[in-house]
Write a structure and sequence with these properties.
The chain is 34% helix and 30% strand. The protein has 83 residues and is an alpha+beta fold. The protein has a three-stranded antiparallel sheet, with no helix packed on it. The longest helix is centred in the middle third of the chain and has 23 residues, at 44-66. The relative contact order is 0.15.
Length: 83
């Protein structure tokens, strides 16, 4: 199953980028692949997403496995989310 949406970059004066979620059955589990692409060269949004997506996905994994999301801030990176 695939879902695509646009991540707006308008607040940063950038063109929209593309976010794609792919879900695939893997036995009793589901494999999630997130692809975020079509960034402008030198994109500020890209730099923000490099830490934002891993933190958000780590929190989602925790929520699905334990019922509790990780406490992360809007500026958290992976190391912050794992602490």
């Amino acid at each position: 199953m695939r879902s695509e949406c646009c991540e707006h970059g308008l607040a940063l004066d950038e063109h929209p980028s593309r976010v794609t979620f792919d879900l695939a059955s893997e036995g009793d589990a589901v494999d999630l692949t997130l692809t975020h692409d079509e960034f402008e060269p030198g994109s500020k949004l890209l730099e923000d997403c490099r830490s934002g997506w891993p933190a958000a996905l780590s929190s989602l994994k925790s929520l699905l496995e334990t019922g509790e999301p990780l406490a992360i801030s809007a500026t958290a990176g992976v190391a912050d989310a794992a602490a």
